[in-house]
Amino acid sequence: MKREIIQTQDGSTTIYLPEWDESYHSKHGAIQEAYHVFIKNGFSLFQGKPIAVLEIGFGTGLNAFITCLEVALTKQAVNYVGVEAYPVTMEEAMHMNYATAIAPESESFFKQLHLAEWEKPTEITNGFTITKRQQFFQDIQDDGLYDLVYFDAFGYRVQPELWSEEVFAAMYKALKSGGVLVTYACRSVIKKAMLAAGFKVEKLPGAPGKREMLRALKL
Fold first, then answer.
1. What is the CATH number of domain 28-217?
2. What is the pLDDT of residue 177?
3. Dist CA 62 CA 55 (whole Å)
4. In angstroms, rounded to a whole number, what is the distance separating the alpha carbons of residues 40 and 64?
5. Which pLDDT score, from 0 to 100, does residue 25 have?
6. Where in the chain are the domains?
7. Which of 32, 162, 215, 216 could form a disulfide linkage to 181, CB 3.0–4.6 angstroms apart?
8. Is the pTM of the predicted complex or chain greater than 0.85?
9. Which has more confidence, 48 or 207?
10. 125 near 72, Cβ under 8 Å?
11. Are 215 and 202 in contact (CB under 8 A)?
């Protein structure tokens, strides 16, 4: 499938799929959406604690990168697992301007995230270790390993099967008791699938350009 590099409204880049009219990040702003959804409403809940994070949709590496930068501030230990079925190329990754926009001195961290071998734990900074797994989301079978899930799959409009009760049941199983899942999406059908999987679900204000998002808790 053809992939194009485009600029979003906050000046940060993303990858666009013309065939689907779908992008990896919000066209309203890739960086601002990532911080709002995954850091402000997810990672910040565990500040100061060692945690394990599962990302559904490693993609451009933006969410992993900003989490890595947060670790430098919070000094906590984070074991990060990024799952991606169709990895971007190194060339595509290097066209992303996230380091330049956020922290130019940390550009080497962003490169290391993409250079890290798949299926092998790699320490990027002191306290931040990543394991990238090339895997279909439907095949995830982890059990009680994670404190936090970043659910950043392509939108329901183009891949509704990734937002099913079955997939959220796998996410529920993968989380520890008290674990949290956050996503940019907020369709009623998605909320129903989360509830059917056992989650307690709440709507939160969305990132710029989006009215609401969802956060789900495993009790």
1. 3.40.50.150
2. 98
3. 11
4. 14
5. 97
6. 28-217
7. 216
8. yes
9. 207
10. yes
11. yes
